[in-house]
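User: Is it possible to get a 3D structure for a protein together with its bound compound? The compound here is tetrahydrodeoxyuridine. I've pasted both below.
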Amino acid sequence: MNDLINKAIQMMDRSRAPYSNYKVGAAVETYDGKITGGCNVENASYPLSNCAERTALFTAITEGHSQFKALAVATENGGSPCGACRQVIWELCGDIPVYICDKNGIKNETTSSALLPSPFDESKLK
Ligand code: THU
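Assistant: Yes, that's possible. Here is the predicted structure of the complex:
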């Protein structure tokens, strides 16, 4: 778990956040221990920006991973994942531990189901 947290914290340094100056790092871990990081990447056309959690997950999927056992997100003030990221975490990870961190480590240990109660997902489309 420490490697996952440290990766999320390190990823804050990769953040491209010239507009908000809010650096976010994230990391996801597969069941076989592979850790993939991501950061927020902002754009002058603000809605085109991407959150750190989604960067990490999309990168991991792109690298060929599909089964995730935990996710960590790190910010200066221990902020929680936004609503869009909660939906994507649920979709791609199901119910997993989510470690919400600042630069010193875990501030809040929660789960994707606690972050997104009554989710909309594939079960509603059948
Ligand atoms: N941000 C994330 O990277 N993850 C979240 O869950 C919340 C928001 C980013 C988006 C934007 O670059 C900056 O934080 C301020 O909203």
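The pocket of tetrahydrodeoxyuridine is lined by residues 17, 20, 22, 24, 40, 42, 49, 51-53, 81-82, 85 (CB under 6 Å). The two ends are 36 Å apart (CA to CA).
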